[in-house]
Amino acid sequence: MFKNLVLGGDPLRVGARRIGDSRALSDDVARDRSAIGFVGLAYARSAKVLAISDQGTDARLPNSLTITTEAYLLSRRLYLYLPLQPRAPLATELIAFTLSPHGQAVVRDAGFVDFDVTLRDVERCDGRCPANYAALTAHARRLSLDFRFRRGSDEIDNRAARDLDRVVQFLRGYPDARVLLLGFSDLAGSSDANLRLSRQRAATIAHELELRGVRAASIDGMGAAMPVAPNVTEADRQHNRRVEVWVDGVP
User: Fold this and answer.
1) Per the domain annotation, does 215 fall within a domain?
2) Is residue 35 domain-shared with residue 138, that is, in the same domain?
């Protein structure tokens, strides 16, 4: 992954050290002002983490929000697989526990980024974001996830299907909250088509939430504005096809 996403066609520097232990790697980088390394966020320890960007995107630091929303370009999902007819009950129980609130607490306590939904205060957007986006989010707080979609459609992906239930469970603690859904597209296609598709995606999430008893107060689309990844590869475009969730009227 690092070779493909960061190095591209460039070779790794001759003499670069390969260190098998992430903690040792981080400690070596922290001791050497000219060193740089690549580890999981849980192992950063005393080393300085770096904000990264790519063409057409803002630089973002790795933190729990940029990773759960997948806005940090080196964040990646961890997939757990089972056969259609599992023969080992413990394997099924393990995955069920991993996805449960108790399992996610273990993930969080170990220093990794969990899926639990939280409210986040974020910096107000400036002239780089659409005016209607700035107006809608001016007094709102953001939820710590984005819903994403399959290529060229308003069909949610596999993580989004589970996140819907997490959002509904979280919002039960805020019965007076106003939910704002803001959709985005990639850059493929015309601006009018992208605007329609981004609105359709926000409407899809609104419909799924309404089926679960939560009605969105506002639904809007921003087209291909504010990309979180370049619009070059299919993986990049997948990052940009998303719906942000904001909540107004909460402390």
Assistant:
1) yes
2) no
How many domains does the structure of the chain reveal? 2
Q: What is the CATH number of the domain that holds 185?
A: 3.30.1330.60
- Range 174-198 average pLDDT: 94
Q: How confident is the model at residue 128 (pLDDT cuts 50, 70, 90)?
A: confident
Range of the domain at 32: 2-49
The sign of the torsion formed by the CA atoms of 204, 210, 214, 217 equals positive
Q: What is the pLDDT of residue 56?
A: 85
Nearest to 149 by CA among 199, 76, 216: 199
Residues 6+ apart with CB under 8 A from 99: 115, 162
Burial 184-214 (b: 16+ CB within 10 A, else e): bbbbbeeeeebbbbbbbbbbbbbebbeeeeb
pLDDT band at 152 (very low <50, low <70, confident <90, very high): low
State the pLDDT at residue 130.
92
